[in-house]
Every structure is written in structure tokens, then in C-alpha cells.
Specification:
The chain is of the alpha/beta class. The chain has a single domain, classed as Undecaprenyl pyrophosphate synthetase. The chain has eight helices and six strands, in the order βααβααβαβααββα. Strands 3-4-2-1-5-6 form a six-stranded parallel β-sheet, with helices on both faces. Helix 5 links the parallel strand 3 and strand 4. The protein starts with a strand and ends in a 10-residue tail after the last helix. Catalyzes cis-prenyl chain elongation to produce the polyprenyl backbone of dolichol, a glycosyl carrier-lipid required for the biosynthesis of several classes of glycoprotein.
Length: 233
């Protein structure tokens, strides 16, 4: 089984249109689906699940939609702490926090602090995340350390870069399996470095309709893959 599964939660708006609902109702349904699926995510021994919930590019969406999503994330972070504590799930939030509203930042800090000591089950929430920005900030950090004489240019290798990426918060920073719902076949600036050898799975079901059965189908598909990492087998 994979140790780390990443999921791009795609299709909330298209699902809402199909069901004759508003866009906020689509996002609300997608949020409920996350909560309903969380225990299923870990039911077969998976350690880390990363959820791409808001990309840096999503700031370009209509202001009322963005504001609704920020309020929904804030409500989630405030109300679900007892659930994650009860089930001993560590929550980590990655992304560029400069544009995130202060009230949401406070909720993020609260839920991270409340769950920081748990091991074995971790949810990584990617909010205002960009794979390019992640690599860029890692390079800047290494450049600063080089400038200060903490490391030499010759010391820089893949391991040092991985230690500067935002996924350093996980024991398993590189996903084994990436699922993107709704049928779109691209990773949209998510985990560009981390996904170098990730198996990519693109079900056509939209996120609010993604179920335990679809999740297990993805895991079964993964188990049938022959992962060579460039080697001949």
C-alpha cells in the first residue's frame, strides 16, 4: 500500500452545476465529503494524505467565491479539532500564508498546535499552495544559508532541497499515489518536485461524489502498478 496519497479535490463547481445548485453549495458538499472520507483514507494503513484544497491560482476566482472558501476553511479549522484529537490525526497546513486572512491563520495555528504530537495519521492541507513557489522558496532558503556560510554550494543535493520543501512536515514527503477527481489529467502546479515518481490516477467522478469504493479502486489500481524508478525490472 502507498504510504502517502495526494488528492486534488476537483469538480465541486461542475458537480453543483450538474445538480442545479450554487457554487457555494458545491464547495460545501466537497467539504462534507472530505470529513466523511477522512477515516477511510487511513483505514488500510496509509500514513499521510495530502489534500490540494486551494491553489495560488485560485485567488483569480470571483471574490465572493474566494471569501466563501476562506470562511469555510476557517469554520472547518475551528470546529473539527475535537474530531482530529479523538482520532489522533495530525493536521499540517502548507502554502504561502502571506495572503491568507488573519482569522483563518489563527484557526490554522490552533488546529496545528492541537494535533502536533500525533503520529501514524497525518493530513496535509495545501492552501494557497503552488509547486513552483515551493521550489522557489526552497532555493531561496538554500541560497541564504550559502550566503551565511552555513553550507557550501557543493553541499546542495536533492536531500537538502527536500529538507527545505514544505512537505518536510511529513515522514513521507513524496506521494506514492496522486488522485485527481473529475477527469482532468494534469497536476496543476501541485507537488512538482515531490511527484517525480508518483503514480497518477484520474477518475472521472467529481469530488463530492467520490466515495470509499472509488478510493479503494484507486488503491487497487496502484497495487497493480510496477514501480521501477528508472530501473529495469
Amino acid at each position: 500500500m502507498p504510504k502517502h496519497v495526494a488528492i486534488i479535490l476537483d469538480g465541486n463547481r461542475r458537480w453543483a452545476k450538474k445538480e442545479g445548485l450554487t457554487i457555494p453549495e458545491g464547495h460545501e458538499a466537497g467539504g462534507r465529503r472530505v470529513l466523511e472520507m477522512i477515516m477511510d483514507f487511513f483505514s488500510v494503513g496509509i500514513n499521510t494524505v495530502s489534500l490540494f484544497v486551494f491553489s495560488t491560482e485560485n485567488w483569480r476566482r470571483p471574490e465572493d467565491e474566494v471569501n466563501y472558501l476562506m470562511d469555510m476553511f476557517k469554520f472547518f479549522s475551528k470546529t473539527e479539532i475535537p474530531f482530529f484529537q479523538r482520532n489522533k490525526i495530525k493536521i499540517s497546513v502548507i502554502g504561502n500564508r502571506l495572503n491568507i486572512p488573519t482569522s483563518l491563520l489563527e484557526g490554522i495555528q490552533e488546529i496545528e498546535e492541537a494535533t502536533k504530537n500525533y503520529e501514524g495519521k497525518q493530513i496535509i492541507m495545501a492552501v494557497d499552495y503552488s509547486g513552483r513557489f515551493d521550489i522557489l522558496q526552497a532555493c531561496k532558503s538554500l541560497a541564504e544559508k550559502t550566503k551565511k556560510g552555513l553550507i557550501q554550494v557543493e553541499d546542495i543535493n536533492e536531500k537538502l532541497i527536500e529538507n527545505e520543501l514544505m512537505t518536510k512536515c511529513s515522514e513521507f514527503p513524496n506521494p506514492d499515489l496522486l488522485i485527481r477527481t473529475s477527469g482532468e489529467q494534469r497536476i496543476s502546479n501541485f507537488f512538482l518536485w515531490q511527484s517525480a515518481y508518483t503514480e497518477l490516477y484520474f477518475p472521472t467522478v467529481q469530488w463530492p461524489d467520490f466515495s470509499k469504493a472509488e478510493y479503494f479502486e484507486a488503491l487497487t489500481w496502484y497495487q497493480q502498478r510496477q514501480r521501477r524508478f528508472g530501473r529495469r525490472v
